[in-house]
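User: I'm curious whether this sequence folds into something compact or stays loose and floppy. Could you predict its structure so I can see for myself?
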Amino acid sequence: MAQFQRKSSVEQFTDYLREELLQRRWTGEMPGVNYLQKEFQVNHKVVKAALKQLEAEGFLVSRGVGRSRLIRIPRKSGRTSSLRIGMMLCEPEDREWSFVAKVFGRLQDAGHRVLNAPKTLKELGMSPKRVARIVEAMEVDAWVVIAASHDVLEWFAARPAPVIVFGGGVGIDSIARTGAIVSPAMVEAVGRLYELGHRRIVMIGESVRRKPRIGLPEQRVLDELERLGIKTGNYNLPDWDDTPQGLRDCLDDLFSITPPHTLIVDTPILFLAVFNHLRKRGIEAPRDVSLITIGHEPYFDWIGPAITHIAYDPDAVVRRILTWVRSVEKGKPLTGSLSVKARLIEGGTTGPVPSGGGEK
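Assistant: Here's the prediction. I'll summarize afterward.
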């Protein structure tokens, strides 16, 4: 515990609080005047003056009357200037995802300490209560969250630590969001497919893309199909159990009676699972069905034919995350969209509507 020196009461208490902040006694939000006065038996005027001094030094950021101050350790403090960045992944496979590895590495290169949550959102069942137990046990200054549900994001939004989310369901205005703006490219893809005779267009996405509300890109596709005169429903965005077997059952059901003309698959990992299962059933692209996915992974280059996909620059997304982290360091976390534009890259997995695949 830091010892008071022979200074004024305000100087002594300021020095003491500064040292406690450097030792990470508190993170996220600074306790208020009433708490500190009671905890340390110090006059409230001394507490207020000490907090004001720490604001002037950049250790604390005022958020206005009635709101707790945010804690920010400035670089010039002479101690480690890094932030502790927590990463909450969506599923275990994300640990092997090249994008996640790149984010992790770039944050470390910038001098920050990156801490992976011990369990992923899927392992926690996307339950805010279960997520809370994990998050509250970790001492971090900010969070990077991958593909969280709306309920989980609402829980994070109520926490003091700033959050940026990549992908996932419908966003929260108070949380920064990054990723790719894919809606225009998906609508463009629907138009191209429609010209080739495709009518039965199905989107395969995980539950965060479907509920509690449909994601914006998915809704844009449904709206475009309706505009083209195609009645939409659960067939176009099927609900399925987010497990490997649940995906296989969903695909088997889709191809048992009214096979889709096109599958638009939400992620490269999910696309690979779809691609493999269909091949095992003798269903080939584009002979029997056209396939499109969102994003690109290096292993795509080893798969034939070339995969039609919605492309975006992952490095640009990483740069957006680093920009956001710098804003957190300055005590002014950015919110809203920090996303990048995506474009349609046509490959060999899309083509004319399959022979005999017209409307019945």
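Summary: Residues 1-5 have pLDDT under 50 and may be disordered. The two ends are 78 Å apart (CA to CA).
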